[in-house]
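Quick one:
INPUT:
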């Protein structure tokens, strides 16, 4: 799919697409099939930021977008698990596009569409994690996506939290600071593992910890045994979610891996693909473009 144009005759002539992630929100306006406005701000997901910040960021985003005349908005967001979740997000968006029809879906749906697939399994590996799928009969299934307090295994936040726990266990055992703990402390601007306890609990966000994932991947690339184990476990947990969805829907793929880490970290992609292969699932695709470019495939059937 060409990410800049849309040739569907049934799509609205002007519509807005939003991809609301744990770390950022991106908005695009399509006019007569072409991208005419594109901007990004911080997260507007109230599961990641407080309501006041969500409103401020949404206002900042729409100030950058030319939405005059837009008749439809389709937003993909994490944590949209109930009608109430969707309604709350619609209420947040609607004042910025008066008169437009607003549709809210879980952000995993954007991944599958961005890969050009109408059936299959989409797996998010970013600040959080989740899997969603649909088969050719239209049956849907989900796994994971419980949020950081209950799950988000294989996510950037999960990787950082597990690295903090690893470092504190070493401290409790009287073991010296090793390479993995050292790079984590450098990221945090701290000098000793003991400081990680207060640092983790006071004033740091999910986004902050998810952004630490590159130092963990770097440690794994340098051969650190525990970092390698964490990357492999992340791949295994993500594969587990994908396999659960595929099993419920009785499909073999495609399985599309995307979002920040899923699209950009080869080591995680390899671990994910390997663990899926062990489960007999071999049709794996890595999403190479931003999930927001799946919205043109969704907007016409979702909003007519």
């Amino acid at each position: 799919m060409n990410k800049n144009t849309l040739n569907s005759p049934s799509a609205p002539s002007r519509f807005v697409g939003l991809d609301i992630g744990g770390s950022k929100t991106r908005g695009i306006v399509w006019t007569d099939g072409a991208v005419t406005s594109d901007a990004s701000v911080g997260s507007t997901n109230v599961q990641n930021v407080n309501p006041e910040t969500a409103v401020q960021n949404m206002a900042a985003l729409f100030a950058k977008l030319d939405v005059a005349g837009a008749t439809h908005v389709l937003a993909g967001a994490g944590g949209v698990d109930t009608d109430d979740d969707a309604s709350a997000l619609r209420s947040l968006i609607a004042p910025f596009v008066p008169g437009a029809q607003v549709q809210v879906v879980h952000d995993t749906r954007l991944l599958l569409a961005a890969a050009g697939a109408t059936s299959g399994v989409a797996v998010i590996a970013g600040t959080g994690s989740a899997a969603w799928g649909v088969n050719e009969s239209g049956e849907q299934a989900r796994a994971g996506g419980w949020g950081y307090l209950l799950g988000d295994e294989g996510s950037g936040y999960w990787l950082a939290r597990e690295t903090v726990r690893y470092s504190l266990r070493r401290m409790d055992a009287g073991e010296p600071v090793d390479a993995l703990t050292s790079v984590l402390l450098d990221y945090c601007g701290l000098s000793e593992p003991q400081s990680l306890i207060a640092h983790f609990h006071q004033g740091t966000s999910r986004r902050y910890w998810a952004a630490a994932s590159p130092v963990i991947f770097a440690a794994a690339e340098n051969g650190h045994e525990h970092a390698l184990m964490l990357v492999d476990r992340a791949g295994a947990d993500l594969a587990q979610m994908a396999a659960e969805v595929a099993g419920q829907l009785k499909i073999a793929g495609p399985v599309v891996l995307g979002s920040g880490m899923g699209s950009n970290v080869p080591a995680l992609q390899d671990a994910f693909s390997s663990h899926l292969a062990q489960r007999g699932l071999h049709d794996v695709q890595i999403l190479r473009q931003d999930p927001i470019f799946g919205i043109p495939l969704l907007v016409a059937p979702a909003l007519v």
